[in-house]
Amino acid sequence: MPNIASILKAEISRVARKEVRAEIETLKKASVAHRASIADLRRQVSALEKELRKVAKGSARQATAAAGAAGDDADAGGPKRRFSANRLAAHRAKLGLSAAIYGQLVGVSGQTIYHWEQGKARPRAAQLERLATVRELGAREISERLEAQ
Hints:
The protein is mostly helical.
């Protein structure tokens, strides 16, 4: 029969391991929960930072556009021109002109006309004025201008 001290020692270590295992299990669960919440908070922070950059970029654009528009209005003194990509495409289609030829009338490249029609870019104030003059022209005047070029 083994020594009673060794049996007692083995039993105590077994019970201690069982208790420690139970404690560690709760700590592991808490750790997993904390990691998940940390990951969620990081995602929220990155989304908020992205939104902040977007808003800051938009407000900076609006401020520069407002400053530019105020300067342009003071210089030109004319009416504020509006631009619509759909209206530009419709006008070009109505005239039956290619983007390159329409660009010659306005004084820009054909690719620029495509970008304006697709909404990828917007014309500057001076270009808006030229677009307005082209819009006011009739088919005969446009053909005369093209022949002159």
